[in-house]
Amino acid sequence: MLEIDTVTKRFGGLVAVDAVSLTVNEGEIVGLIGPNGAGKTTLYNVIAGTFPPTEGTVRFNGRRIEGMRADETCTLGLARTFQIPHVFASMTVGESIQVGAFLHRRRRSAARALSLEVAAAVGLGERFDTPTTALTTAERKRLEVARTLATEPQMILLDEVMAGLNHTEVNLMLDLVRTLRDRGLTVLFVEHNLSAVMKICDRVAVLDHGAKIADGLPEEVMENPEVVAAYLGPPAGRDVAETEGGNA
Ligand SMILES: Nc1ncnc2c1ncn2[C@@H]1O[C@H](COP(=O)(O)OP(=O)(O)OP(=O)(O)O)[C@@H](O)[C@H]1O
């Protein structure tokens, strides 16, 4: 469904994403992880249309999408959340969801009906008429997911939707993502919460210093020495230069 082919993104002299290739198949939940500054958000932004790659291609359902605007990729069925929830301060939860619903539904009544459905699906049904400013962090994250769902996507890109959530809230979010997948959505999520990634992902790709260093089943990836070194640094007492995949 999503094919990222040797994508590089440079900011001046800095290579934020370095020739990364990654495929996400229909119905999969794929996690994109890596230490701070690894290039996750940059790759995510390239996929979602915030900015074009310096090199490489991104295909969604076979169609080239690199360089397209976020609203264009969204129209094609690829929707994203933002790391910092973009709530509209003056709106209610329902109105905020409705903004996304208008993408494919012109009539107000149809957009509202979809918004009610989506709000219920993410557990915000009771908060439909609540101002977005009154939401808790966990509810704001759910609203962010709801706003992407309202665009009726085939695939969603989730950016740090577990950040700031407590254990119970993380589990509720995991349940939500599983439910979405069971309903046919494909999911790519960028996440710092490794235990959440381990619990939910069919496959995990790991970035370090912009390059992909691993891609596979979660348990395999977590045991990969290069991944361990990227997160924890090289084993104590060894010369960094001798440590394959070290974080030097
Ligand atoms: N707009 C930009 N201009 C210049 N450099 C940038 C820009 N965006 C990101 N970078 C740099 O690119 C590199 C990758 O950053 P990125 O935010 O993609 O990493 P990340 O894996 O998402 O990190 P984190 O987990 O901390 O969010 C970093 O060195 C960062 O400073």
Automatic annotation (TrEMBL):
InterPro entries given in the database record: AAA+_ATPase, ABC_AA/LPS_Transport, ABC_transporter-like_ATP-bd, BCA_ABC_TP_C, P-loop_NTPase
Q: Which UniProt keywords apply?
A: ATP-binding, Hydrolase, Nucleotide-binding, Transport
GO BP terms in the entry: D-alanine transmembrane transport; L-alanine transport; L-isoleucine import across plasma membrane; L-valine import across plasma membrane
ABC transporter domain ranges (all copies): 2-234
Highest taxon of source:
Bacteria
Q: What is its EC number?
A: 3.6.3.-
Q: What is this protein called?
A: ABC transporter
Organism, as annotated: Roseovarius indicus
